[in-house]
Amino acid sequence: MTCAILDDEPLALELLADYCAQIPGLELKGQFHDALAGLAFLQDNPVDVVFLDIHMPRLTGLQLAQLLPQPGPRVVFTTAYDQYAVRSYELNAADYLLKPIAFERFVQAVQKVRQQLAAPAATPSPPAAAEAQAAAPDAMFVKNDHRLQRVAFDDILYIEGMKEYLMIYTTTGKVLTLQSFRRVEEVLPPERFARIHKSFLVALNRIEHIERGKVQIAGRLLPIGDTYRDAVTAVLRASNML
């Protein structure tokens, strides 16, 4: 069984590579700390399973999983954050490993993938997937004027960073919140939203047009940052917008 590892943490890459070397019949084909480099490799070099970190710069593991060739490799998510479990089951992940990852737990994940590959037609969708999908949130709560305000994902146009604050532009108005982009990115569905600039995160279905390194939403042109350009292009292509 062949595999690849994508993780922006050097120690995590080293640990998982060492785990792979200890398992007979598991061949490591590539390891990458850059998500886009890993994606390019996987598009030309198919493997059976990808051990994929979720929180990576430019392109999250959740977004990358949706860009993999289909039918593609089994995906085992690796992360230090348990709040991504619901999202991972929506993407039919083979397993979900919480860091620090024990060797015994890693072996269990490998065995689970082996079983899926041995009998793919007989492997039903796990009950947890249906439960997770039913429980998937459709809104988030943000701090606003000493209260928690509900903001529906469907209403969000784009989000602008203003130092330690975020301005959330919605179809019904604006919401200013003391919040970080990182926290918001953990909550928003990655298939529906993308970071396009250090100061902007947008709802993909609200993009009116794209021109000269900018996107227009609600009549406003928003820049696409150089460091985000390749990731944004990949996400837009996966969404059939390019």
Core attributes:
five-stranded antiparallel beta sheet; 8 helices; 32% helix; single chain
Give a nutshell description of this structure.
The protein is an alpha/beta fold. It has helices spanning 10-21, 35-44, 61-67, 85-90, 103-118, 127-135, 181-187, 229-238, and strands spanning 2-6, 27-32, 49-53, 74-79, 95-98, 139-143, 148-152, 156-162, 165-170, 173-178, 193-197, 200-203, 209-211, 214-217, 220-223.
Largest sheet: 5 strands, parallel
- Helicity, in percent? 25-40%
Gross geometry: globular
Radius of gyration, taken over Cα atoms and rounded to an integer in Å: 19 Å
- Give the mean pLDDT: 86
Parts with pLDDT < 50 across at least 5 consecutive residues: 127-134
SSE string, helices as H and strands as E: EHEHEHEHEHHEEEEEHEEEEEH
Helical run tally: 8
End-to-end distance: 34 Å
Arrangement of strands in the largest sheet: 2-1-3-4-5
> Strand pairing plus helix content: what structural class?
alpha/beta
Q: How much strand content do the residues show?
A: 25-35%
Total E-strand runs: 15
